[in-house]
Each structure stands twice: as structure tokens, then as C-alpha cells.
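Weekly modeling sync, notes
Attendees: S.R. (lead), two postdocs, one rotation student

Agenda item 3: backlog of single-chain predictions. S.R. asked that every request posted to the team notebook include the full sequence so nobody has to chase files. The rotation student volunteered to paste the first one in as an example of the format we agreed on. Action items at the bottom.

Example entry:
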Amino acid sequence: MTKIVGIRFKPTGKIYDFDPGAFVLKPGERVIVETEKGLGFGTVAVAPRPLDKNGDKRPQKKVYRLATEQDFKQQERNRRTEAVAHEFCMACIRDLDLEMNLFSVESTFDASRLTFFFTAEGRVDFRQLVKMLVKKFRTRIEMRQVGIRNQAKMCGGLGRCGRVLCCSTFIDKFEPVSIRMAKEQNLSLNPTKISGLCGRLMCCLNYENATYQKLKENYPRVGTSVVTGEGTGKIVRLNVICSRVSIKLETGAIVEKGLNQFTIAKEKSRK
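Predicted structure, as returned to the notebook:
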């Protein structure tokens, strides 16, 4: 029976499927795998499992071997090289006066390539920078411009909730987030309160959006005319978590009512 194993190359990176071969692997074990860029150093994220009948039938890259002590030493050398490359590249950016924000450097496991990740407002002419990096490190250089959300994911940090950023802990890919989600949840539309460290709308707005939409199916719309014990008025706000609505009466007062404490006003027939 064909099996696949989930391998992750970064702590919060995407999980890739590989062929485990005859290896008996457990989550957390370090392995060397075959990739398009050569051998890679990864961590078992999902234990080997049978390939789904409806899954991808294409041949999978294989787990080459379990990581050895020499592999861990090589990985440590790569980390030191990345730190040196980051410092040197920052100095070059200042000398060339380039408008770019370098935030990470990654080396392939065999140290045959260095990838520099940066953000910028527009396109950057980094040809001279690449020449300086090649001359210094004598290896292949790749410059990769990414979005601000990817920067937050790779750098990490604490959100306004006090917890480590979702994107740097468990989010594999970014889902679309819109201001409409904040409106659905009756949140303040102040950008500083619904934006994350990246400056974009917080990913957590997406978590409960479907629940709010489902709950609101049983509620009248905002603006609906209703009749209460205090008089008639219009619904101005919904609080689906507490099962209550805010109603502005004709007198100008605002009262909160449960769903069973008001009725929908009948529309006046037109002659």
C-alpha cells in the first residue's frame, strides 16, 4: 500500500507530502528529503498514512534518510551563514540607498543557494546588490519580494490578544479577509482595532464569521420596524451572541430586547 508522510521545513510553514519508503517515522523526527532544489532538512509533521484513493496520484519525492549528527551540524552552519548574510546585505542596502526592507535570509541545506526575503513599496533594481552578494558568498543568490503578511508570518510577534501571531503558529495559507466580516460581528471599524501587526485586517476575523452569518439567519435585518411594550421603533443593532437586539424607539430612547419581546410591525397597505 502506498503511503505518504507530511513534512514541514519551517516551524509554521506549509506541510508537503513525501513518500516515506520503508522508514517508520513519528511526528517531530528530523529527516533529509529529496526536493526540487536538492536535499532538504525537514521535520515530520504528519505521521505516514495510506494515500487517499482520490488523492494526488503523481509520484511523490522520497524521504532520503533520517537526519544524522552531521546533518544537525550542517544546519547550524547554515544558520550562522544566514546571520552573516543578513548583516552584510543590510550594509549593502544602505550603501546603495535602496528602498527595500530585508527581513530574512534562508540557505538551502547544501548551502548552494541563499534566498533574501524583503518587502518594498514597488519594484526595486537590485542588480548591483546581487553582484555584491555573489562576490561575497560565492553561491547562487535569489532575491524574493513578498507581501507584508508573509513578513509577519516569517518574523512572528504578539497580537493584540497577547498571544503569538496566528500566522506564525498554525496558519498554513492566508484566507481572504474583508471589512464586511468586521461589520457582521458588530466590531469597531477603527482600523487600529481590527488590524494586525502587518497593518492588514486581522486573520481572526475569519474564524467566527460563518457562525455569525448562520446565527443572523434567525434575526430581522437592521432597520426593520418592530413593536415593543414601550412602543414602536426600528432595529439599529444585533447582538447575536447574547440573543438580543437594540431598538431605537420613536421617542429616541434605545432599548435592548430578546427575540421574543417584540414583533415585526405590519407594513401599511398602499392605496
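Discussion: group reviewed the output briefly. The chain has a mean pLDDT of 87.
Action items: rotation student to repeat for the remaining queue; S.R. to check formatting next week.
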